[in-house]
Amino acid sequence: xxxxxxxxxxxxxxxxxxxxxxxxxxxxxxxxxxxxxxxxxxxxxxxxxxxxxxxxxxxxxxxxxxxxxxxxxxxxxxxxxxxxxxxxxxxxxxxxxxxxxxxxxxxxxxxxxxxxxxxxxxxxxxxxxxxxxxxxxxxxxxxxxxxxxxxxxxxxxxxxxxxxxxxxxxxxxxxxxxxxxxxxxxxxxxxxxxxxxxxxxxxxxxxxxxxxxxxxxxxxxxxxxxxxxxxxxxxxxxxxxxxxxxxxxxxxxxxxx
Length: 257
Prior knowledge:
The protein has twelve helices and ten strands. It is of the alpha/beta class. The chain has a single domain (6-183, 196-201), classed as 2-enoyl-CoA Hydratase, Chain A, domain 1 (Alpha-Beta Complex), CATH 3.90.226.
């Protein structure tokens, strides 16, 4: 790998992590997920960093999982990949994380944003959980986190249809905190992170932990159920057909098997 998959820098007390896999639209392969976890942990391990911004490019935050990796996988293969470890590591990052989202945040990209504490979106941002179109379900926490963020009925609509919503609708549905012009989204997120970085660190960490604990204590069983269903679907003909159709750029033909 000649290029870093995640670029990091520090802007005062704010750490910035930028997804850097443009040729694959920042698709979240296992290697990419590990690189994100490593980058966030490295920034959080710097005592001078008090808040982190996670972003992609103006064109795309992250376009979802790397389907080339998953298309022919079996449940055993999915378990062996063990990508859940990276999602757990995201959850344990010891600093507030703000997602600065522009362009597509689809599938795992939307779930990555949902892992963050706040979301600042550009006017061009689009959010979706299109896994259903591939014969599977979200596997990075969306069935639980999305339902808690926007309510079960709106979450059910996104997850069962696989259709996208734009930034303004995401704001109306309480999926994001702010929507700003595309030329401002990253600066807005960094400025918001800067405000948080100026607050007393111990109080920030205590407040963040309290909010997250309240969410997770009722979410853990749901996340376990989501993962079990996600893995099991890799033994279905519809999963094979859905992902093959995606890679071959044709409509899928699902049979319910």
